[in-house]
Amino acid sequence: DAGITQSPRYKITETGRQVTLMCHQTWSHSYMFWYRQDLGHGLRLIYYSAAADITDKGEVPDGYVVSRSKTENFPLTLESATRSQTSVYFCASLRGTSSHGELFFGEGSRLTVL
Amino acid sequence: AQTVTQSQPEMSVQEAETVTLSCTYDTSESDYYLFWYKQPPSRQMILVIRQEAYKQQNATENRFSVNFQKAAKSFSLKISDSQLGDAAMYFCAYRSARTGGGADGLTFGKGTHLIIQP
Questions:
Q1: Would you call B2 an interface residue with chain A, using a CB distance cutoff of 8 Å?
Q2: For the segment A94-110, what is each residue's pLDDT rounded down to a tens digit?
Q3: Residue B102 is nearest to which of A31, A44, A58, comparing CB atoms?
Q4: What beta strand segments (E) does B62-111 contain?
Protein backbone atom coordinates (compact mmCIF):
# COMPACT_ATOMS: atom_id res chain seq x y z
CA ASP A 1 0.00 0.00 0.00
CA ALA A 2 1.14 3.53 -0.72
CA GLY A 3 1.93 5.64 2.28
CA ILE A 4 4.52 6.54 4.81
CA THR A 5 5.85 3.94 7.20
CA GLN A 6 8.05 4.23 10.26
CA SER A 7 10.08 1.61 12.02
CA PRO A 8 10.41 0.56 14.70
CA ARG A 9 7.06 1.53 16.21
CA TYR A 10 8.46 1.03 19.71
CA LYS A 11 12.04 1.13 20.91
CA ILE A 12 13.66 1.00 24.33
CA THR A 13 17.33 1.84 24.56
CA GLU A 14 19.91 2.97 27.08
CA THR A 15 21.64 6.29 27.53
CA GLY A 16 24.61 6.65 25.22
CA ARG A 17 23.52 4.14 22.61
CA GLN A 18 22.99 4.99 18.97
CA VAL A 19 19.46 4.63 17.65
CA THR A 20 18.14 5.00 14.13
CA LEU A 21 14.49 5.54 13.33
CA MET A 22 13.53 4.70 9.78
CA CYS A 23 11.03 6.46 7.56
CA HIS A 24 9.93 5.33 4.11
CA GLN A 25 7.41 6.91 1.77
CA THR A 26 6.05 5.51 -1.48
CA TRP A 27 4.79 8.73 -3.09
CA SER A 28 8.15 10.22 -4.14
CA HIS A 29 7.31 13.43 -2.28
CA SER A 30 10.18 15.89 -2.31
CA TYR A 31 9.79 17.30 1.20
CA MET A 32 10.10 15.14 4.28
CA PHE A 33 10.12 16.07 7.96
CA TRP A 34 10.90 14.69 11.38
CA TYR A 35 8.92 15.90 14.39
CA ARG A 36 9.00 14.95 18.03
CA GLN A 37 5.89 15.03 20.19
CA ASP A 38 6.12 15.67 23.90
CA LEU A 39 3.40 16.33 26.43
CA GLY A 40 2.92 20.06 26.82
CA HIS A 41 4.92 20.89 23.70
CA GLY A 42 2.84 19.63 20.82
CA LEU A 43 4.93 18.67 17.78
CA ARG A 44 8.29 20.29 17.19
CA LEU A 45 10.31 20.11 13.99
CA ILE A 46 13.68 18.38 14.30
CA TYR A 47 14.95 18.25 10.71
CA TYR A 48 13.53 18.48 7.24
CA SER A 49 14.64 17.63 3.73
CA ALA A 50 13.66 19.36 0.51
CA ALA A 51 15.03 16.59 -1.74
CA ALA A 52 17.59 13.83 -1.83
CA ASP A 53 20.90 15.04 -0.36
CA ILE A 54 19.33 18.28 0.89
CA THR A 55 18.61 18.51 4.59
CA ASP A 56 18.28 21.34 7.08
CA LYS A 57 17.70 21.94 10.78
CA GLY A 58 14.37 22.62 12.34
CA GLU A 59 13.52 23.96 15.78
CA VAL A 60 15.14 21.24 17.94
CA PRO A 61 18.00 19.58 15.97
CA ASP A 62 20.58 19.09 18.72
CA GLY A 63 21.51 15.46 19.30
CA TYR A 64 20.05 14.26 16.00
CA VAL A 65 21.47 13.48 12.59
CA VAL A 66 19.58 12.85 9.35
CA SER A 67 20.45 11.71 5.87
CA ARG A 68 18.57 11.43 2.61
CA SER A 69 20.46 9.43 0.02
CA LYS A 70 17.21 8.36 -1.67
CA THR A 71 13.99 10.33 -2.09
CA GLU A 72 11.90 7.67 -0.40
CA ASN A 73 13.95 7.25 2.78
CA PHE A 74 14.67 9.73 5.55
CA PRO A 75 16.28 8.08 8.58
CA LEU A 76 16.76 9.90 11.88
CA THR A 77 19.73 8.94 14.05
CA LEU A 78 20.34 9.69 17.70
CA GLU A 79 24.10 9.30 17.89
CA SER A 80 24.24 9.09 21.69
CA ALA A 81 20.76 8.85 23.15
CA THR A 82 19.85 10.86 26.24
CA ARG A 83 16.83 10.59 28.52
CA SER A 84 15.55 13.92 27.25
CA GLN A 85 15.14 12.29 23.85
CA THR A 86 12.44 9.99 25.18
CA SER A 87 9.55 10.98 22.97
CA VAL A 88 7.23 9.99 20.15
CA TYR A 89 8.78 10.71 16.77
CA PHE A 90 6.77 11.40 13.64
CA CYS A 91 7.96 11.37 10.08
CA ALA A 92 5.94 13.27 7.49
CA SER A 93 6.00 14.08 3.79
CA LEU A 94 4.50 16.97 1.87
CA ARG A 95 2.31 16.41 -1.15
CA GLY A 96 3.54 18.82 -3.82
CA THR A 97 5.96 21.65 -3.21
CA SER A 98 3.57 24.48 -2.53
CA SER A 99 2.71 25.61 0.93
CA HIS A 100 -0.93 24.59 0.80
CA GLY A 101 0.02 20.98 0.24
CA GLU A 102 -1.07 18.44 2.80
CA LEU A 103 1.38 16.86 5.21
CA PHE A 104 1.04 13.10 5.54
CA PHE A 105 2.29 11.53 8.74
CA GLY A 106 3.60 8.13 9.65
CA GLU A 107 2.18 6.33 12.66
CA GLY A 108 4.94 7.45 14.96
CA SER A 109 7.81 5.74 16.76
CA ARG A 110 7.76 5.73 20.53
CA LEU A 111 11.32 5.87 21.88
CA THR A 112 12.19 5.34 25.52
CA VAL A 113 15.73 6.09 26.70
CA LEU A 114 16.58 4.55 30.08
CA ALA B 1 8.91 33.27 14.16
CA GLN B 2 5.32 32.21 14.14
CA THR B 3 3.62 30.87 17.24
CA VAL B 4 0.38 28.96 17.65
CA THR B 5 -1.53 28.97 20.92
CA GLN B 6 -4.25 26.59 22.02
CA SER B 7 -5.46 27.85 25.38
CA GLN B 8 -7.67 24.87 26.22
CA PRO B 9 -5.63 21.82 27.29
CA GLU B 10 -8.83 19.80 27.62
CA MET B 11 -12.47 20.12 26.58
CA SER B 12 -15.45 17.91 27.32
CA VAL B 13 -18.75 17.74 25.43
CA GLN B 14 -21.84 15.58 25.48
CA GLU B 15 -22.41 13.32 22.53
CA ALA B 16 -24.50 15.02 19.81
CA GLU B 17 -23.68 18.49 21.17
CA THR B 18 -21.52 21.15 19.55
CA VAL B 19 -18.05 22.09 20.77
CA THR B 20 -15.61 24.81 19.72
CA LEU B 21 -11.85 24.50 20.09
CA SER B 22 -9.85 27.72 20.18
CA CYS B 23 -6.65 28.60 18.40
CA THR B 24 -4.78 31.86 18.05
CA TYR B 25 -1.57 32.51 16.18
CA ASP B 26 0.99 35.20 15.82
CA THR B 27 2.57 36.11 12.50
CA SER B 28 3.77 39.13 10.60
CA GLU B 29 2.92 37.53 7.27
CA SER B 30 -0.24 38.21 5.30
CA ASP B 31 -0.39 34.98 3.32
CA TYR B 32 -0.40 31.63 5.06
CA TYR B 33 -2.34 28.44 5.66
CA LEU B 34 -3.98 27.12 8.78
CA PHE B 35 -4.81 23.53 9.62
CA TRP B 36 -6.56 21.43 12.22
CA TYR B 37 -5.19 17.93 12.77
CA LYS B 38 -6.80 15.18 14.79
CA GLN B 39 -4.77 12.60 16.70
CA PRO B 40 -6.83 9.69 18.06
CA PRO B 41 -5.38 7.20 20.55
CA SER B 42 -3.85 5.30 17.62
CA ARG B 43 -1.41 8.27 17.33
CA GLN B 44 -2.09 8.73 13.63
CA MET B 45 -2.18 12.41 12.63
CA ILE B 46 -5.22 13.08 10.46
CA LEU B 47 -5.93 16.31 8.62
CA VAL B 48 -9.38 17.58 9.58
CA ILE B 49 -9.65 20.90 7.78
CA ARG B 50 -7.54 23.51 6.02
CA GLN B 51 -7.98 27.28 5.55
CA GLU B 52 -6.17 29.59 3.16
CA ALA B 53 -5.63 33.02 4.69
CA TYR B 54 -6.53 34.82 1.45
CA LYS B 55 -9.99 33.26 1.47
CA GLN B 56 -12.63 35.05 3.51
CA GLN B 57 -15.03 32.13 3.41
CA ASN B 58 -14.69 29.77 6.33
CA ALA B 59 -13.76 26.20 5.43
CA THR B 60 -16.24 23.41 6.12
CA GLU B 61 -15.86 19.64 6.03
CA ASN B 62 -19.08 17.84 6.95
CA ARG B 63 -19.54 18.32 10.73
CA PHE B 64 -16.33 20.31 11.05
CA SER B 65 -16.14 24.02 10.34
CA VAL B 66 -13.83 26.85 11.23
CA ASN B 67 -14.28 30.44 12.30
CA PHE B 68 -11.36 32.26 10.74
CA GLN B 69 -10.84 35.81 11.98
CA LYS B 70 -7.76 37.11 10.18
CA ALA B 71 -7.56 40.47 11.91
CA ALA B 72 -7.84 38.84 15.31
CA LYS B 73 -5.50 36.00 14.25
CA SER B 74 -8.01 33.49 15.47
CA PHE B 75 -8.84 30.10 13.97
CA SER B 76 -11.36 28.09 15.97
CA LEU B 77 -12.72 24.66 15.09
CA LYS B 78 -16.40 23.86 15.57
CA ILE B 79 -17.52 20.26 15.74
CA SER B 80 -21.25 19.78 15.36
CA ASP B 81 -23.21 16.71 16.43
CA SER B 82 -20.21 15.36 18.36
CA GLN B 83 -19.63 11.63 18.07
CA LEU B 84 -17.67 9.22 20.24
CA GLY B 85 -15.19 8.81 17.40
CA ASP B 86 -14.34 12.51 17.63
CA ALA B 87 -12.54 11.91 20.93
CA ALA B 88 -8.88 12.78 20.27
CA MET B 89 -6.16 15.37 20.60
CA TYR B 90 -6.69 18.25 18.22
CA PHE B 91 -3.79 20.33 16.99
CA CYS B 92 -3.94 23.69 15.30
CA ALA B 93 -1.09 24.35 12.87
CA TYR B 94 0.30 27.17 10.73
CA ARG B 95 2.37 27.26 7.56
CA SER B 96 3.77 30.22 5.70
CA ALA B 97 2.72 30.65 2.07
CA ARG B 98 5.97 32.22 0.92
CA THR B 99 8.05 30.44 -1.70
CA GLY B 100 9.81 27.53 -0.12
CA GLY B 101 7.35 27.65 2.71
CA GLY B 102 7.10 23.92 2.54
CA ALA B 103 10.57 23.87 3.96
CA ASP B 104 9.22 25.20 7.21
CA GLY B 105 6.82 22.33 7.66
CA LEU B 106 4.11 23.21 10.14
CA THR B 107 4.18 25.11 13.41
CA PHE B 108 1.86 23.36 15.87
CA GLY B 109 -0.02 24.42 18.96
CA LYS B 110 0.26 22.26 22.08
CA GLY B 111 -3.06 20.57 21.44
CA THR B 112 -6.50 20.25 23.01
CA HIS B 113 -7.68 16.93 24.39
CA LEU B 114 -11.34 16.49 23.45
CA ILE B 115 -13.46 14.16 25.56
CA ILE B 116 -16.87 13.02 24.35
CA GLN B 117 -19.31 12.12 27.13
CA PRO B 118 -21.83 9.43 26.09
A1: no
A2: 886 565 678 899 999 99
A3: A31
A4: 64-69, 74-79, 88-96, 107-108
